[in-house]
Write a structure and sequence with these properties.
Blueprint (H helix, E strand, L loop, with lengths): L8 H13 L10 H19 L9 H8 L4 H12 L1
């Protein structure tokens, strides 16, 4: 039986969640409500990947620091700057 492959949480985040959340983002006009929704979706993915539920008392900043993941909005702005 082949050995079980394991991937790290940041690798899963980069390969699974990031492309879905940033599809076509180079041309978006980001409003404050859009930014909140993107951040909420990102945190939902990060909480699930880290094994926390919304009832666990962990702040979003603590989870992001624990997983060492750059926020999606920062990457989105980076993509927009490089696209133009």
């Amino acid at each position: 039986m082949p050995p079980k492959q394991t991937t790290s949480v940041p690798t899963q985040h980069l390969t699974l969640a990031l492309p879905v959340l940033l599809y076509g983002s180079e041309t978006w006009t980001i409003k404050a409500s859009d930014a909140r929704r993107i951040t909420a979706a990102e945190m939902k993915c990060m909480r699930r990947t880290a094994g926390y539920t919304w009832t666990n008392y962990k702040t979003n900043a603590q989870i992001a620091k624990e997983l060492k993941i750059t926020p999606i909005l920062d990457k989105l702005l980076e993509y927009k700057r490089s696209w133009i």
